[in-house]
Amino acid sequence: MSMTHTPTPDKDTELHDQQQFDDTVNRTGKVVLQALAGAGIVAALLMSIIALNQSGEGSGATAAAQPTVKLAAVTAATSSAAAAQVVDLKVIGGYKLGPDGKKHDAFTKTEFAVKVGQPLKLRIDNTDDVAHSITSPVAGVNIAAQPGTHTYTLVVKQAGKFQWYCMIPCDSDANGWAMQNPGFMSGYITAT
Ligand SMILES: [Cu+2]
Question: Coil, strand or helix: which one is 138?
Fold first, then answer.
């Protein structure tokens, strides 16, 4: 039984044409889609490049820089947590009784302990109307405490026990006696 049904030539042509048409549409469509996709990629790339360029200036830079700044702030806060201690002290005129029975100008704290190379914050309330200093040339320290409350940084770069003194003439009633005597306008910095 070889009586198979075969399509009429017309129909065959129709089908063939239809097939060709479909193929063409598909191919063209694909090409168009590919072109569109290509254009899309190019457009996306262009936009990215523009965005990148813009981020390097103006508000974009601020937005991009903020996380870095925050990170740095967190790092600084963490690393300085151990060294963030602040020592409070005052400078008071005629504050402390000396062996001569008179009151002398003095720092309320004259002994300081530091770790070599580690800054120690000194918040000094100088109640006098002139500056007084914590000076130790050997230790490389020279802090001039101005009148009022200010915070200074004490750093010593070598280990040792160093005497400091106030190098700004004071304790004038006793010819500057307090400037040479530990516990008054002098003291020790111990760096370990
Ligand atoms: Cu002084």
Answer: coil
CA distance 134 to 161: 14
pLDDT tens string 43-62: 444 344 444 444 444 444 44
Distance 104 CA to ligand 1 centre (A): 10
Looking at residue 46, its amino acid is L
For residue 93, report the distance from its CA to the centre of ligand 1, in Å.
Answer: 9
- pTM (2 decimals)? 0.58
Query: Looking at this protein, which amino acid is placed at residue 94?
Result: G
Compute the distance between CA of residue 134 and CA of residue 136 in angstroms, rounded to an integer. Answer: 7
Please report, for residues 37, 41, 53, 60, 119, the alpha-carbon distance to residue 47 in angstroms, rounded to integers and kept in the order given.
Answer: 15, 10, 10, 14, 49
Residue pLDDT, tens place only, 79-131: 554 556 899 999 999 999 999 999 999 999 999 999 999 999 999 999 999 99
Residue 166 Cα to ligand 1 middle (Å)? 5
- Name residue, tokens 């760096």: 191
